[in-house]
Amino acid sequence: MSQLRLNRKVPVLRFNRNRNTGTLLLSALRHLPLLLLALLGACAETPPPAAPPAPTASIDEFFQRFTDDWVRRNPNLAISTRYFEGEEQDRLSREITPVSRSYRLETIRIAREGLAELATVDRDALDASRRLSADLMRYQLESVVDDEPYLDYEFPLEQMGGVNVNLPNQFTVVQPVATARDAENYVARLGQIDERMAEAVADSERQAAAGVLPPRFILAATLSQMRRFIGPPPAENPLVTTLRDKMAAVTELAAPRRDELLSAATAVVADQVYPAWANALAVLEAQVPGATDDAGLTRFDRGAELYTERLRHYTTTSLTAAEIHAIGLKEVARIEAEMDALFRTLGYTDGSIKEREERLATDLTYPNTAEGRQRIMADIDGILADALARTASSFDVRPETPVIAQPYPEFRWENAAASYTSPPNDRSRPGIFQMPLRPSQLTRFALRSLVYHETVPGHHFQIALTIENETLPAFRRIRALGGLSASTEGWALYAERFAAEDGWYDDDTAGRLGQLSDALFRARRLVVDTGLHAMGWTREQAIDFGVEASEIERYVVTPGQACAYMIGQLKIVELRERARAALGERFAIRDFHRVVLNAGVVPLELLEREVDAYIADSGGAAGGR
């Protein structure tokens, strides 16, 4: 694919609409110089009116005020980013963000207000950095507003990112416990879990009554996961064991106080959390008889419209499902041909690419034991340290905040995908790479590529650098208005590819096959996601195309997101090669990486604008297409 068609011409936005209030005053002010001249007789000695002040302060103040208010009503975001200080941060650290439909509608209303205020800003008077920030904020707020017609198609309870997953994650990964007060806040916050789960259950019941049900196999996966979560005795639930383990490092907490807090947490889990989960289980079980195994959005009357919006949202382009499907098929064929040649050098000559992948992965497995799991986590630490050393020559901007690897809690192993959690704004916690340790993941095959994607030079480089960049407004640093998968996942997949292009696998053919296998997986995603949601594919058809069941179930509950990876990567490669062609000997990979990373998390349209500006500033002809 030579060019990816982008969604919106964001760079030509003009923020010149007046708000309803104050229009007469603004009109009078515009004519004030003429009135003064008339009164003074246009005297030659009278100096001309002073130029209006530059809007820098006002736009900066708007960014700050809007972000403060946005985070203030989202305790989860305040906690994960450590956004505030003192009493306000402490108060928010005892709360959990609502998940109700009414809360989401209020968020959309606030987004509309932000757009209205942003529209009064004279974009042309801003410097390049603030103009990019204004364009990005407008894009993201418009995306929030555009989601309103489709809120009722997002399942509140599901196995990948439902409330039943996100609530425990708030405690096992995000909630800090570094002081005695942190531990008290942790326990206080536990007391809100049942309320948040009740909101999710109410939404699930309302959707089911309207005929919007998850497929039967999604209900089965979610029920299984939720039963595992409440399977242990309350004292052994991850919500309690996480508190126990974190408090062990808090020296100011005497043993009796630790015991009191653990006892209180155990009581909350037993008396509130487990009953809330049991109620949710009963609601989902009641939905099973009415569900079907139809996997795609085509089962809904507005399914095609919804999927078009989801593709636009996640890829930040206007590519259609058919176009993305075709790109996927082309990439699958290209990558499989390259893999076939490499497999033959290792003596794997028989069977399909998928069959040979499975044999090599089996040959590189770790034991399905506690010792095997310790070994894979130790190897991940080694790969991460090696990657940090290798990036010195090709990246002249690298984050100061460290990144660590840790396994998921066991109740999430069956369904979870590997993931990265960014460090908070105050850098009090490192970036965290989490790994599911189910048997299918216990292999060295593609392990290096996975680590590069999630950590260095992938997610951690892009996201931690953005957080550390104090020249950016806060909403960009902490991604307050949400993520942009085409940018973040596109960069992480580019990081995988760059490692191969830079020679990191020169002495590791099996590792290179693992990298290509991951690329093939992302190409297959383009085919499978569009197949499921636009072409009537069944779950079984998607699995037969070479993607495991847990991944298919992920695409069913987050339509379109899986397409962001390869579409984003292909665009970044396209921009890199454009810069290389335009600059010739003046092209340096470190410069290109600096431009992309300093742009941060932006839609592909805005990234293209930044790269074209870099080409022009470096003496090349930008935008030649």
Task: Write up what this structure looks like.
- Among the domains are: 156-293; 304-571, no CATH class.
- The longest helix has 33 residues, at 255-287.
- It is globular.
- It has 26 helices and 3 strands.
- The chain is an all-alpha fold.
How do the strands and helices of this protein lay out in sequence?
Layout: H1 23-39, H2 56-72, H3 75-81, H4 86-92, H5 101-118, H6 128-146, H7 163-174, H8 180-190, H9 193-209, H10 216-229, H11 238-247, H12 255-287, H13 303-315, H14 321-345, H15 353-363, H16 370-390, E1 403-407, E2 419-421, E3 431-435, H17 447-454, H18 459-468, H19 474-477, H20 485-501, H21 509-534, H22 539-544, H23 549-557, H24 564-583, H25 589-599, H26 604-617
Parallel strand pairs: 1-3
Antiparallel strand pairs: 2-3
Helix pairs in contact: 2-5, 5-6, 8-12, 9-12, 10-12, 11-12, 14-21, 16-17, 17-20, 17-21, 20-21, 20-24, 24-26, 25-26
